[in-house]
Amino acid sequence: MSAREAILGRARRALSDVPDVEPVLDVEVVRPVPDRSASRGQVVDLFDERVADYRAVVERATPATAAERVAGALAGRTPLAGSGPLRILVPVGFPAELVPGDVEVVTDGPDVPVTELDRCDGVLSTAATGIAETGTIILDHGPGQGRRAATLVPDLHVCVVRADQVVPGVAEAVATLDPARPHTWISGPSATSDIELDRVEGVHGPRTLHVVIVEE
Known about the structure:
InterPro entries: FTHF_cligase-like_sf (IPR024185), LUD_dom (IPR003741), NagB/RpiA_transferase-like (IPR037171). This protein is an alpha/beta fold. Helix content is 22%, strand content 22%. It has helices at 3-14, 40-53, 66-74, 114-118, 170-176, and strands spanning 57-61, 87-90, 104-107, 122-125, 129-131, 136-139, 156-162, 166-167, 184-186, 191-192, 200-201, 208-214.
């Protein structure tokens, strides 16, 4: 008898007193449909709510207060170096007026090694779009968004999303994306419950996601 036959035989004996259960094939799966009649304000409100559901920090701002909100997201954090200013990774194309003046800027680029990213206290980025239905932020790594590693390695990700970039659902988001570009879909800070169902944050990416929604 082969090892395979022995294993299958033990499985059959173990299940010998278990009654057969007919599969249920006529269950209707109901999926929520985004409200396409919702106003712009309602769509942004839903996005705010859903992003917060993922334990991200969400703040609203105007163009005049956006820099203050970004600075506030960094305030009070202890530098990895133990002293001195925070080292903040800033992708090329990120609005210069939103970068706080009291941080050490590390400009992201392909020549910046991952070890250097790991020494940064946080990263600033813009986004390509946001999905209200799922609370998801999508980066296509264009200007202001940096490469994928830039928003995965630092412990804090401060993401600036314009209200006019928020769409109701996934279909609308996909329609805005260039399929030739790389995409990163972010739904809250990195978290896993693989070990004894205990939630641990910061395993596969930033432990803290701070989203600033800028409304005109």
